[in-house]
Design a protein that fits this description.
Elements: H1 6-9, H2 12-28, H3 43-56, H4 62-67, H5 72-76, H6 83-99, H7 104-120
Helix pairs in contact: 2-3, 2-6, 6-7
Family: Belongs to the truncated hemoglobin family. Group II subfamily.
Binding site for heme: 119
Keywords: Heme, Iron, Metal-binding, Transport
Length: 127
Amino acid sequence: MTDDSFYAAVGGHETFQRIVDAFYEGVANDDVLRPMYPEEDLGPANERMVMFLEQYWGGPTTYSERRGHPRLRARHMPYKVNPLARDRWITHMTAAVRSVRLSPLHEAEMLDYVERAAHSMINTFDD
């Protein structure tokens, strides 16, 4: 059986773990985004994001098995996701995706998702 998912094509778990690790390295020192992660350490958020992205891109369905439907907007509603937070998230995710050096086609597809996902999370225009 051949797995032709995006997940498999870009290198599977290892690639997604590297992307998420790079993302949270940026978040750790970001004064806008870091307060959105209540855990003392970013480990639990890292694990959740890896599971989510793997599932979204055709990998294991561990996220839904453990946490149910992603409900991204609902899960982010307690936090102020304004255009500044969106832009910071895009900056860190873009750098993280680029850091793993995907093929140009895969990188473009993932960065398109990053942009769309970030814009859909805005829940306020207050500073």
